[in-house]
Amino acid sequence: MKKLLILLLCLSLPVSCSPRQPPPEEDPPHFTVIGVSQVGSESGFRVANTESMRSVFTEEAGYRLLFDDARQKQENQIAAIRKFIQQRADYILLMPLCVSGWDSVLQEAREAGIPVILVDRTIETADESLYAAHVGADFQWEGEQAAAWLENAFQGAKGPVNILHIQGTLGSSAQLGRSAALEQAVEAHENWNLLAQLDGDFTQAKSYEETAQWLDSQAGPPVLHAVYCENDSAAFGAIQALEERGYSCGAEGVRIVSFDATRQGLTYCLEGRISLEVECDPMMGPLVEEVIRTLQSGSTPDKHYYTQEQLFTPEDLSRALIDRRPY
Length: 327
Ligand code: AHR
What we know:
This protein has helices at 2-12, 44-56, 74-86, 103-111, 139-153, 173-188, 204-217, 232-244, 263-270, 285-296, 319-324; strands at residues 32-38, 63-69, 91-94, 116-120, 133-136, 161-167, 192-199, 226-229, 255-260, 276-279, 304-306, 311-312. By secondary structure, the chain is α/β, with parallel strands linked by helices. It folds into 2 domains: 32-137 and 282-296, Response regulator (Rossmann fold); 139-280 and 314-324, Response regulator (Rossmann fold, 3-Layer(aba) Sandwich). Helix 9 (263-270) links the parallel strand 9 and strand 10 (276-279). The model is unreliable at 4-17 (pLDDT under 50). The site of alpha-L-arabinofuranose (AHR) has 12 residues, from helix 2 and strand 9.
């Protein structure tokens, strides 16, 4: 009877008599944590490369990005990797400043079970298993394209071909590959003179300063046929120094060869001030994500994934084409 009364009471009440249930707890969202050690922001290429990582590894896509800008210092990159290890990143992306000096810190990442993917540049190590994969350009191939173009441009030259070389960050794989290709081509052509190799450090300011200083230190204005600039920023600096001193850059003057093919570089090319642009594609985020998915599925990715690149001369370009490009 008592039980029946309680039941009737419950049915008549607007609220339930069952004990109050706590709201179901939602599982915390699971993010894949990606530590990115970026070299710096020295060039248009670099800024676009960072942007590509940021646009792929978003929280909406299930990632948490730990980003560090090393401001062109290897020790900052090493410190960043150690921090990512402490923060228990799932993957580390490393855009290495230079080729050597990585073994110990990569060993630490391996001991912590964190795969490292090299992005853009590569490294030299006796133990290739210290990184899971590399995604980037083949810099030697790029340099060979530029050298082949120069060979064609100066094919019938009767006299010497005087070349000034503005190098990228010394010891980086981008510099080593592009410089080796030019040096081999100079060896192969008796009439090619490498007048000087200047350290442009992949920046406009350094390239301007070095080129201006070198030009001003010569006995008189040197006869220049070509300037081989290892990226667009270096080309902008060299062109500024040359033009300020009365040189004209282009088909009728000094041939400027450059790498990256950023929108600004291609604009100089459209104007004829840069004669050849060898593309170096910074938009590597999607390819890097594919490598991460391969690793997540338990498969072994290829060791190297090379970006597809092309060459541009003024004849290939239009304003519309440049504006459509993503960087
Ligand atoms: O490693 C690629 C090079 O690094 C790019 O050509 C240059 O612009 C950059 O900063």
